[in-house]
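Appendix B, example 12.
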Amino acid sequence: MTFLEIRFIDLVDIFLVAYLMFRLYKLIKGTVALNIFIGIFAFIVFWLLIKSLNMELSSTILDNFVNVGVLAIIVVFQQEIRRFLLLLGSRYNLHNNFSFERFFENKSAGMMNIYIKPVVQACEDFARSKTGALIVITKNSELLDFVHTGELLNAVISRRLIESIFFKNNPLHDGAVIINRNKIKAAGCILPVSQNMEMPKRFGLRHRAGMGITESTDAVAIVVSEERGRISFFQNGRGEYNITVEDLEKRLEAAGLTR
């Protein structure tokens, strides 16, 4: 009897595959894609069973499906694959980690408070007046693809400017405001809508857009409900609903936006 020889590199390989499968599960959890993934897994198990039983006719038919299976998976999971690649690009952005700009950034305390305070104050006013709002604050990724879907502003952040953008008669109030590096980069931006089936049905497109942008990037999003005037905070594809203004400020500080 011979025992299976396990090398150190085999353990690394197993760990890497397990980690990738875990990240894939986290990515598609709560979406329709999870059911499709389970169906594909069941098909593969059935195909291996047919092969092991040497059922020639069935095996030949299934082999033809497997030969084009990679292309079919790309077509079916194109949105999830795109989100996964965006997630990798934004979480492990080498350009930002090793750029010369990082050596000249002003890291003094309170630097980011210049725009955090006006944002928090504007959200407090929105909640009081039940004005719908969607504000995205970038971190490592500048979200240029989404910035270009709206009207470029590149304006200094102020409480009154944010409030005027989301005024109900303003043509930009339905889109998102994107804030990057102490500037309001753009308004009226179009964001990806989350397909997460676990999100409560009572939430509309603003909340789904807030979750969607944080599923595929490292940005954070703030949503104020137009119906109830409640504040929601989104990060890493997860949302906290009906939080207070004080809680919002703490979440922004915890996200590293007030340092």
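Residues 87 and 217 are 6 Å apart (CA to CA). The longest strand covers residues 183-189.
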